[in-house]
Write a structure and sequence with these properties.
393 residues; alpha/beta; FAD/NAD(P)-binding domain; D-Amino Acid Oxidase, Chain A, domain 2; 6-stranded mixed beta sheet; 12 helices; binds flavin-adenine dinucleotide
Length: 393
C-alpha cells in the first residue's frame, strides 16, 4: 500500500489512531486480519489533548476487576512516562483536603499514542495519517492522503468524542460532554508527588480543576466543566485564569508559572452510549462514551475496549464469534464500574450546585471511601442512594 493515494480493500478499517484505535488495529492484525488504521491528524498523537494521568496497572486492575488488561497498560516504555505520583488529593470548596495513595504514571500522550500505533504497524496493520473517514450510504468514504469508497467487513469507530461513526449508529451527540482547557505550566510550586483535584462552583462549576505534575516545577493545570453549570457570560479560559490567579490554595503556587502549551478538548461525561455496535460497526473509547464519569479518565477504558473490539473483529472474520457479542463483552469487562461511576457523578451533581453541600460531603466521607467512589465502587448508604437514583432514571 502506498503512503498516498487510492486505498485497497481490507477486512478491517479502524478509524482513529488514539489509544482505542491503535490497540484495536494491533489486536485484529495480530489475530490475522488485514487491517487499515487511519487518522485525520497529520501526526499521530499531536496535538495532545490530554492530562496524561494513568494509574499504575495494579490500580487499574482494582478499577476494572473483570477486565483483561492489555500489556500496553501494564508495561509502558519509560520514554513514554514523564513522571510518577503517589497521592491523589482532593480539595473541597472550603479548601479542606483529603488524600489517599494512588500510584500514578503521567504519560507523554504524543509518545504513547505513537508507541501504540507503531505496535499496530509491527503486528501487520497498514496506516494512513491525514485521512478522514465518513460513513456514506453503507460504505466508508476516505478523503485525504488515503482516498476511496470502501466496504470493509468490520469498521472500528475509535474516532473520539465527536465520533462520526457513532452518529451513523444514531448515537445522539447531545450526549453529555465535559469541556476542558488545560495549560502545561513551568515554574510552578507544586507537590510533585500528588495529582490534585479542586472542586467548587467559583472555579469549576459542574466539574473540577486539576494539577497533574509533570516534574518538580512543571505541571498540567486544567479545568473541566459542563456547559450547563456555567454562567452564560463565563468562558473556560476566564475560569482557568481565575483558578490560577485567585484560588486561595492553588493560586499562590501557580500564578508565577509560565505557559508552555495550551490544550483543549471535550470528554464524554454521561457513560456508555447506546448502541456501541450496529451491523459491522463497533465503537470503542471516547466514541462509545468509555470514560469514567467521576474522573474524566478515558485512556484505560479506551485501551481495554480497543483490545476487545480488535479481537471481536478478527474472530468474527474467522467465523468464531459474532460482532453482536461485542456489547456484552464490553459490559462484562468494565460496564458495571462505568455505570456506577455515572451514578456516582449524578449523585455528586446534586451536591455540586451548592458549595456548602460539597463541603458537607467531604466532611462525612473518609479518604478510603473517596478512593472507592472514584473507582465507581460506592460505600454503604451512598451505594444504596445511587441504586435508587439509577432506578429512577
Ligand atoms: C483536556 C483533556 C485532559 C484529559 N486528561 C486525561 C487524563 O489525564 N487521563 C485520562 O485517562 N484521560 C484523560 N482525558 C481523556 C482521554 O484523553 C480520552 O478518553 C482518550 O484519549 C480516548 O482515547 P480514544 O482513542 O477513544 O480517542 P482519541 O484519543 O480522541 O482518538 C481519536 C482519534 O480519532 C481521530 N479522528 C476523529 N475523527 C476522525 C475521522 N472522521 N476520520 C479519521 N480520524 C478521526 C482523531 O484525530 C483522534 O486521533 C483527557 C481529555 C481531555 C480533553
Amino acid at each position: 500500500m502506498k503512503a498516498l493515494g487510492k486505498v485497497e480493500e481490507v477486512d478491517v478499517i479502524v478509524v482513529g489512531a488514539g489509544p482505542a484505535g491503535s490497540t484495536a488495529a494491533e489486536r485484529a492484525a495480530a489475530a490475522g486480519a488485514s487491517v487499515l488504521l487511519i487518522d485525520r491528524k497529520e501526526e499521530v498523537g499531536s496535538p495532545v489533548q490530554c492530562g496524561g494521568f494513568l494509574p499504575e496497572a495494579h490500580e487499574l486492575q482494582a478499577l476494572m476487576p473483570h477486565a483483561d488488561l492489555p500489556a500496553t497498560l501494564v508495561e509502558i516504555p519509560e520514554r513514554c512516562v514523564l513522571h510518577r505520583t503517589e497521592i491523589q488529593r482532593l480539595y473541597a470548596p472550603s479548601g479542606r483536603s483529603k488524600e489517599f495513595p494512588v500510584d500514578g504514571r503521567v504519560i507523554d500522550r504524543r509518545a504513547f499514542d505513537r508507541h501504540l500505533a507503531y505496535r499496530a504497524i509491527s503486528a501487520g496493520a497498514k496506516m494512513f495519517v491525514g485521512t478522514t473517514a465518513a460513513p456514506e450510504r453503507g460504505f466508508l468514504r476516505l478523503r485525504g492522503r488515503g482516498s476511496g469508497l470502501l466496504s470493509p467487513r468490520v469498521v472500528v469507530g475509535a474516532d473520539g468524542p465527536a465520533s462520526a461513526l457513532a452518529r451513523s449508529l444514531g448515537v445522539s451527540h447531545r450526549m453529555e460532554m465535559g469541556i476542558c482547557l488545560e495549560l502545561e505550566m513551568a515554574g510552578v510550586e507544586i507537590d510533585a508527588q500528588a495529582a490534585e483535584m479542586y472542586f467548587g462552583t467559583r472555579f469549576a462549576p459542574g466539574g473540577y480543576a486539576w494539577i497533574i505534575p509533570l516534574g518538580e516545577e512543571i505541571a498540567n493545570v486544567g479545568v473541566g466543566v459542563r456547559r450547563s453549570y456555567m454562567d452564560e457570560k463565563m468562558t473556560l479560559s476566564a475560569l482557568l485564569d481565575r483558578f490560577i490567579m485567585d484560588h486561595p490554595i492553588a493560586g499562590p503556587r501557580l500564578r508565577r508559572g509560565q505557559v508552555m502549551a495550551v490544550m483543549r478538548g471535550t470528554v464524554p461525561a454521561g457513560g456508555m452510549v447506546g448502541p456501541i455496535q450496529g451491523g459491522r460497526i463497533l465503537l470503542a473509547g471516547d466514541a462509545a462514551g468509555h470514560v469514567m464519569a467521576t474522573s474524566g479518565g478515558g485512556i484505560p477504558l479506551a485501551v481495554v475496549a480497543g483490545s476487545i473490539a480488535g479481537l471481536m473483529a478478527a474472530r468474527s472474520l474467522q467465523g468464531e464469534a459474532s460482532l453482536n457479542d461485542y456489547p456484552r463483552m464490553i459490559h462484562e469487562s468494565f460496564g458495571r464500574e462505568l455505570d456506577r461511576s455515572v451514578q456516582m457523578r449524578r449523585l455528586v451533581d446534586l451536591l455540586m450546585k451548592r458549595d456548602h453541600l460539597m463541603d458537607t460531603l467531604f466532611d462525612h466521607i473518609d479518604a478510603e471511601q473517596m478512593k472507592a467512589m472514584q473507582r465507581g465502587s460506592i460505600p454503604g448508604a451512598l451505594g444504596r442512594i445511587c441504586d435508587a437514583l439509577a432506578r429512577s432514571g
